[in-house]
Amino acid sequence: MQVVETNLKVCIDPGHGGKDPGAVGNGLQEKDITLHIALETARILRAAGQMVILTRETDRYIDLTAERTPAADISVSIHVNSGGGQGLETWVSLFNRPAESKMLGQAIQAGILSRVPFHNRGLKTGKNAAGTADYLYMLRKPMGVAVLVECGFIDSGADAAILGSPENLKKIARGIAGGVAQYLGVKGEDKDMLVKLNLKTDVDLPEAKIEVNGKYISTGVILNVAGEDTAYAPIRVVAEALGATVNWDDRTKTVLIESR
Question: Residue 63 and residue 114: Cα distance in Å, rounded?
Fold first, then answer.
């Protein structure tokens, strides 16, 4: 596994929360789905060495204020649609670094669709009434490159069947994380940013909890190589739990671990 740092900060925003459930349908609530996806997306990106902040990590209410748009280089707001449609769409900015927003949006849209059988609704844009700014707050207000992902329609039976599966929510998260990594130019990682396998289809790898001195720090995966199970864990979180620092030498493709 390779850890690659970019020195850029990624903000992941789980839409809605607390007293605001967002869209509701088919026994599901948007706020729960977005939090599940956001937490997994953040875990994957952090395991790949990225700096990630979440606007919320629990079921709490946040208004459309500066708390929703903390200082970051990239902002990904995660939502679920409603209103009678079906499929995945990603909203990109027309005013806030539009070329970069479109590039990020395309990478995320493709990343999710390669893993989850959503109908492809493509990229979306919208202006305010005056035509002077983006219609959506989460595209208009972030200082960095911003996108907003609508992960299916909660009132669509087909999409609800996808969103009701925890495994599918993990796949959506992998798609978002993979899109962010592609945009950042993170190299040497497979599309799940864990291990590179010579396979043409997704595989679900058994997970292993990682504890250091009795304290849970992360989740790794188990691979069976030549008949022997080997656990693979994020280098950075393990090293930091042991009081060490991790750096990457791109010239020699070497992970450098040094005790403090």
Answer: 33
User: What is the helix (H) or strand (E) element at residue 77, kind and residue range?
Assistant: strand 74-81
Residue 203 makes CB contacts below 8 A (sequence gap 6+) with 197
193, 48 Cβ separation under 8 angstroms: yes
Nearest to 80 by CA among 142, 138, 15, 139: 15
Q: How many helices (H) does the chain have, and how many strands (E)?
A: 6, 13
Measure the CA–CA gap between 257 and 260, rounded to whole angstroms.
10
Amino acid at 86: Q
Cβ-proximal residues to 121 (8 Å cutoff; 6+ apart), any chain: 85, 87, 88, 89, 150
> What's the CA gap between 239 and 245, in Å, rounded?
6
CB distance 178 to 193 below 8 Å: yes
Catalytic center residues: 150
* Strand, coil or helix: 235: helix
Per residue in 102-155, pLDDT tens? 999 999 999 999 999 999 999 999 999 999 999 999 999 999 999 999 999 999
The whole-model pTM stands at 0.73
Distance CA 121, CA 129 (A): 23
Domains delineated in the chain? 9-184 (3.40.630.40), 207-259 (no CATH)
Query: 146 pairs with which residues across the strands?
Result: 75
Q: What is the DSSP letter of 113?
A: H
Nearest to 173 by CA among 163, 159, 184, 183: 163
Report, as an integer, the average pLDDT of 249-258.
Answer: 73
Q: What are the two backbone dihedrals, phi and then psi, of residue 39, each rounded to the nearest 5 degrees? A: -60, -40
